[in-house]
Amino acid sequence: MNFEEHAAKLLVLNPAGIPTLRGTLCTTATEAEAAAANIGPCVLKAQVPAGKRGKAGGIKLARTPQEARNAAEKILGMTIGGYEVERLLVEQQARIAREFYAAVLHDVVARRPLILFSTEGGMDIEEIAAEKPDAIRRLLLDIDGKPKTADIAGMLKGLGLGSAEAHIVQILDRLYTAYRAHDGELLEINPLALLDDGGVVALDCKFVLDDAAVYRQPEVAKGGAAVPMTALERRGAEAGLKLIQLDGNVGVLANGAGLTMTTMDVIQHYGGRPANFLEIGGEAYTKSEIALDLVLSNPGVKSLVINFCGAFARTDVMAEGVVRAWHKLAPRVPVFFSIHGTGEKEAVALVRNELGIEPYDFMEDAIQAAVKAAQ
Amino acid sequence: MIVRRKDRVVVLGITGKQGTFWSEKMIAYGTNVVAGVNPKRAGETHAGVPIFAATTEAVAKVGGDVAVMFIPSTMAKDAAVSAAQAGIKLLVVLTEHIPAQDVMAMHAAAARYGTRIIGPNTAGLVTPGECFVGIMPAFVPSVFKAGRVGVISRSGSLGTLICLNLTRAGLGQSAFIGIGGDPMLGTTTRDALEALAKDDGTDAAVVVGEIGGAMEEDAASYAKKMTKPIVAFIAGAAAPAGKKMGHAGAIVTGNAGSYASKRQALEAAGVTVVDTPSQIAAAVSAGLKVSRAGNKLVASQ
User: Is pTM, for the whole model, over 0.80?
Assistant: First the structure.
């Protein structure tokens, strides 16, 4: 789950004691004008859970309320990274001496939390890694313990941070505490600024909450950004199914992410275009009834592949769901089955007897037939 | 990580619907299930084995080398840490959607107590004709057959399809190693490849990968040193960039973890990468022919 900057600052950074600049969230140019009158010279920032906002023209400076109004009119309604800008953060301008990069995230190879710090703030970490790999400092942590102040100070050694070092050590320690407390997948401050007055503040913040931990972060999760979805994808989400609508015409109903991706790959390999990704693997395999409804509701679908390869997911249970849905929906597009694995005997018999369709012996034959039928 | 019939298996969460269904299947197939764990049902017998209140107790009373978890994601961390503390050597974590910070705690405990974790989000391990641990259709004869090809897969459903294709082509399997679909796995593709390289019962390896992460790239650096032929299939060539395709591990951002990056790395290491699952069996047969001819040459010199 992604968060917009204002929500990440308010819900994650500020409670952890990491300072940010004074700001107001606005949804209209009039509100932005009023906020600027109150704050003084300000920066207006488009609130979308996507990067490269500055490059897209979503961040503008304003000295006066009138300038703020003009800037807000330009920014509101823009589309950045696929998101329409509906909100702005109007934030106080600051006198910046230096900009840093700070983040806590999972090191998936080490399987441990990792603190990253760089004196090259303002750039993407990928850019820093490519251009100045030596400018990135890393500290791997033990998930069961708290980081030692000496270790954090150690990672900053030689960076010439001067009197700001103590501040930064404290901020990194708090950043880690916040990452742990809120099940962060990524908690990033870029830039972290050293101001002319010696203060250190987070100018921006990116927070990604682990989707698997949303259940135990109910308060923070309320502030998460909505995921842009098509109407069909939303119906899928409401049914607890991950559906991604694509622009092809061969519908896919398979169990398990690996098999579903492979079905899409084979469709593409034979010159077809998949119409969706829809996973009913794991515990979701019992939802084949609603799943069939979803894939058939996709207006682009000209043919459908039903590809079951049961391990944990029992193909007999999935086939029962398909048969139930079939009798209600009476599909008008040709449907091609391939069924193997756990429960296959019962499942094949069910499809044969109830639907009068003979499943293909080989998955790729079913897929080729579906690709042909869609042309 | 190749399970054997002598391995004593403890089933955590044995009394649930899935725990019951799969324990019965495992026992019927020949897996040496010695105990179940459920604090509320300690002292009872379920699926023909005794139930204990904790893994430590099960291990103390009847022994245990392997544990398999039918435990919901919210309780998975505690169950895994307890199993590691109890001295379980191989812990098969089937559970999907465990919070990542819990997964890290599980891996930390495993490292502390010398436990190897398979998964999370794995479909388990199969040694065809001998035993299986997990949720794979080992007992479906059209899918699995004893033989000499080792299969490594992140996905259970796709792994099932690959084994089916191999069996149909007359190529039995020495082991199926389901490493899991999560981003942070206890056992990586490389670890599994090393196990197959050392296994006397394995002549060739099949790697079933997926977009996302860098495991296939890492495995490629080991594959270079292997003499047994390796065939790989990578799922996700048609996946749109930046979208999570179910498995949290399968997200493509930039070039890292992309289909092209994985394919290039594996091919550069001498691995045969095929376009579709149906091409795997023929590629394995071709690889075996070459390696057997090579072995004969070495033997005759």
Answer: yes
